[in-house]
Amino acid sequence: MKIPKKLKPGNIIEIHWVDHWSSSGWRSPKEVFDQSINCSSVGYYVGQNKNLLFLAASDDYNGYVGSAMGRLKKHITKIRILK
Questions:
Q1: Could you tell me the pTM of the whole model?
Q2: Is residue 47 a contact partner of residue 65, using CB atoms and an 8 Å limit?
Q3: Exposure winner among 6, 43, 45, 56, fewest CB in 10 A?
């Protein structure tokens, strides 16, 4: 998915992405195929590089963010700018 050009650091966004999963327990083949891998997060847009889009759970508006995460851009299926 293309990242919207109007996205600016500090925007509050919701992203949806397809994730990986793993399990260490015994499962039937049906249980393996029935696992949900669709995820979403809401946070402050921090920026991006070639492969990752960065979000943070909090922003102190003095140049620092808390609880930052990076999501692989190729796994993102939807981006919605909330504010």
A1: 0.81
A2: no
A3: 6
- At 42, list the tokens: 């809401």
Query: Which residues lie below 8 Å from residue 62, measured CB to CB, with a gap of 6+?
Result: none
- Reported as a pLDDT band with limits 50, 70 and 90, residue 36 is confident
Query: What is residue 61's predicted lDDT score, i.e. its pLDDT?
Result: 82
- Let me know: does 5 contact 79? Beta carbons within 8 Å: no
Q: Residues 53, 76: contact at Cβ < 8 Å?
A: yes
Per-domain boundaries in the chain: 12-81
Q: Which residues contact 77 (CB under 8 A, 6 or more apart)?
A: 1, 16, 17, 18, 38
Of 26, 23, 25, 24, residue with least CA distance to 36: 23
Distance CA 3, CA 19 (A): 18
